Structure prediction request, 776 residues.
Amino acid sequence: MNEQNLHELEEKSIYIMREARSKFDNLAALWSMGKDSTAMLGIARKAFMGKIPFPVIHIDNGIDFPESYKFRDELAKKWGMKLIVAKSEIREEMSGFSCCGSNKTDALKRIMKEHNFDGLIVSIRRDEHGIRAKERYFSPRDMHFKWDYKNQPEELWNNYSSKEKGASHLRVHPLLDWNEIDIWNFIKKNKIPMNPLYFSKHGYRYRSLGCTHCTVPIKSNAKNIDEIIKELRVTKVEERSGREQDKEKQYVMEKLRSLGYM
Amino acid sequence: MLCRDLMAAIKPQKTIREIEQLQKEPTEENWKKALKIIQKGKYYYIYYPSALKGKMSLSSAYAIIYDKSEKPIFKVPILKKTKNSIEGATSYLVGLDINRGMIK
Amino acid sequence: MEKYVITMLGEKDHGKSTLIGSMLIAMDATTGDRIREAKRYSKNNRFEPAYILDSFYEEREKEMTIDTTRAEFAYNKSIYELIDVPGHLELIKNMMSGASNAEIAILMVSLKKGEGFRPQTKRHLFLSSMLGVKSLIVAVNKIDLVNYSEDEFSKMKENVGEYLKKIGFNRPVEYIPVSAYNRDNLISHSNKTKWYKGITLLEAIEHSARRMRKDSSRNRGLRAIIQDSMIDGKAATIFAYISSGTIKTNDSVHIEPFKTQVKIKELYVKGKRVKIAKEGSNISIRCNLNSNLIQRGGIIYANSQKSAYSRSFNAKIFFIHGLLDRRSEIIMNLNNKKVEAIISDINGFTNPSNGNFKAFKNVKIVPNIVVDVKMSLKSPYPIERFSEYESLGRFTLYSKDKFVGIGIVK
Prediction:
């Protein structure tokens, strides 16, 4: 994995977040209590004089890790977040990606409409999955929250899209250029509080965090950030190999994105 | 891999009234009543038995609560029944840590 | 590690994607999983390196790039990101988006009969110089299909060189005979082109990167672009991006086009208070100014410098959509600031697919030609020459809310 220049990555992300705050009337951010979205909030504090000047949304399907709920409430308080917990409907029986997918999209649609959010910060990275590699920094979503991946708007230099006709909102992706190891370097350097599930106990830890149903731990003895970084420097396995939904065929992944989930 | 065989062998030690009530009727009220007892545990581990079949069934899923020596003490559901629907309820386990000793 | 962005240019089938795939394999920058998957996907049992790249399902089915594809490899403590862009004219918007952030470009031009240096390739070249490419590597591809002929290579080199001269491209150019598929001259010198005494593609990439590093330490005047402001009681905090130069606490600056004088009381970078901030930094400034006077899009200048703001200026514009003529109203997007303008004069146009310039005054502006115009602004705004302050001298164009083209200030 290639470690990039943190300074440049941060500057770009800060620029994008400031641009988002300025452009949109009602900006919000998605937070999953995972390392990426937490790092994103850390970057926001650097961009806005220690404040997080937009509401933070947690789409909660109710079966998240207890450690994540605890981490959420503690950090939200510490960083003075305006936290919105949007409960997503969960059904008795579900399978495959619909368990974490479509229900979360519905909850997101509901909360976006309720608050009239026109911009949404999402912490995806290009290196997470091939499909994400094609995302723009500012990416419109239509009324049905679909991603028209075959017909994306232009994004030249540092000129980013604004709301266009037919778009319900724009997604803002400040972490697009970051690698997994860059995120950890940032977390280490800035002492960002982290979900304890990332660190090893009994020889296992969680590399990528979804809900309790979808997340599978990996074998690892990395007990702290330094050890995680060391581990990442050696590994060639892609991060999300522990997430059930990603094992679906590539085409399905694109459909998921175009459906507005993720 | 999750150790499904071990799960069959675990027999929770005590049968407590509040826990029994909760298992029968996982309503908000019963969760609240059971909370104090649940919080006496130290670890949890959640099992999704239907996952082996590629499905997700909330009603058959459950969490085993362990004490500080990782001994299983009782079993709780992970959902909550409201008037019209069901909700996930793992947030009631906040304060406990996941028992990674159960991962195999 | 430093990262350098390199855009691929050239037509479909000339080998852009194959080159990237081959580089990734050669530089051990891909996973066994991907190679296996690519092998499985390759038709006719001929392994196609391009399949290693992240593509849309439709791109693989149709065997063409629709939107930008990225891949990166590390070498000698630097990261090189290769961006593959679509070659098709209809997808030029995607090509421009991908190429706009690259300072280095690799042009693939095929020696295969029936392919060659064609209008589409010429258009890519012209556009990339408008987009700000500073270093060009011309990979003369499929040398294996012409028997590794030195003659064919030289002819192509001359051909391309002539066009570059015609369009006034005066940046460094390197010509390399390659076979993207067989990896000739990509990483190491091929023994099939013993007549070629130049550098390999990898070396050319490294040299270009080194040149970028040297270039960026130029001494230029202060230009900071205001993005936003935040009110904190009486004091205003200005958020700005230093596009060039440096700024220090206690500096006196002026903000245009508002003609406002400001003294920098407090300066912050990434949340920390600093005395000095350099080019490339996003800063927060605290000063005693009513925030109503500080608007997004304002440009901060050092007091020692007069701003070059104007009501009208000459520009080169490239349209991808629509029809315009003299007196047409248009919106410029300059660093995310929308500026209203009118095309006040047309001085001539260049056809980028052959580089020919014609000094016609009374033309309609149609897609895919580069037009020399005079633009007038509704209200004065700081404008700089592209050749001097790149990021203040380039803009995207919108008509009726639709993206219609790009322009640079002459």
Remarks:
- Chain A has two domains: 6-178+248-258, 195-246.
- Residues 195-246 of chain A form one domain.
- The first helix of chain A runs from residue 6 to 23.
- The beta strands of chain A are 27-30, 56-60, 83-87, 93-95, 119-121, 138-142, 167-172, 204-205, 218-219.
